[in-house]
Amino acid sequence: MQPIPRQLSAYFQDKQVLITGGVGFIGSNLACHLVAMGADVLLVDSLIPKYGGNLFNIAGIRDQVRLNIADVRDEHGLRYLVQGQDVIFNLAGQVSHTDSMIDPYTDLEINARSQLSLLEACRHGNPQANIVFASTRQIYGRPQYLPVDEAHPLQPVDINGINKTAGEWYHIVYHKVYGLKTVSLRLTNTYGPRMRVKDARQTFLGWWLRQVLENQVLQVFGDGQQIRDFNYVDDVVLALLLAAYYEKANGQIYNLGAPEAINLTELADLMVEIAAQSRYEIVPFPNDRKRIDIGDYHGNYDKIRRELGWAPQISLRDGLSQTLAYYREHLAHYL
């Protein structure tokens, strides 16, 4: 794990911390850091198989956290769970873009209504909690300019993006109107240990990682020139911690991002090189994915760097090397 600044460790020691989606990819990595800092951590996760929760993600800290298997769609349960929490990292969500187009109502329930339920639970039962919401760059849609900053118009191209936009703005409105201490981070492509690699429903990169390790042929859609930026999960964890720590973050929206973008062909080349196996091929875009593809994306993270001092520390090469090493050892737990 990446070292955490001393002031953050001191702040989170003995804090009561709730993580929704706590057994998922980002939530479990965050939990490991919080446990190391001495926080009292409560993980809430539905463990619905297709949403990415995996008990192996917390195997190393299982005796040091409390786990409540619950669904954020249960508003009555949320009212109980938020009580007494100092910090709430609200990471639970339906993140598959294609699933949102197939089953829009479930996406609506999880990414919009459930967010409103959590905020209502805090407004009535714990208005002092710091709430950090995991939003997404998907809400920008197809960029009008690069790199994309927080002033870029929001024009989501799929149901997931629309509902995530609503979930984010519920958090901001509850700060402005009710004074809740909320902040939203618009995450870009996050990768690293504990991510879902079972299929391509949530992230193409997780699927690529599995294919590389199984020496399969990677499929790069379109012409392979689409650019993306990527954040290693430890860098994302640091951003979440900083957002909870700084009072000036309350009511703010921040992009995450990387210093440089990379196109998908270059990414495939890099993965194959690091793994020293597999290969890739360029194939036509599947129609269901092409309709909601955002084209090129590269985020501008100047605001969070300026205000909270965050910048990614792990290079893409190093992050991919660490991730591949993790799955070489543990892949069987993620199939």
Task: Provide a compact summary of the structure.
The protein has helices at 6-12, 25-36, 75-81, 97-102, 104-125, 159-178, 204-213, 233-245, 264-275, 287-290, 302-308, 316-330; strands spanning 16-20, 40-45, 66-69, 87-90, 130-136, 181-187, 189-191, 217-221, 227-228, 230-232, 253-255, 262-263, 279-283.
- Morphology: globular
For the sheet with most strands, the description reads: 7 strands, parallel
Q: Indicate the CATH architecture.
A: 3-Layer(aba) Sandwich
Alpha carbon gap, first and last residue: 24 Å
What's the helix count?
12
The helicity comes to 40-55%
Identify the strand order in the major beta sheet.
3-2-1-4-5-6-11
Low-confidence stretches: none
What is the H-and-E element order?
HEHEEHEHHEHEEHEEEHEEHEHHH
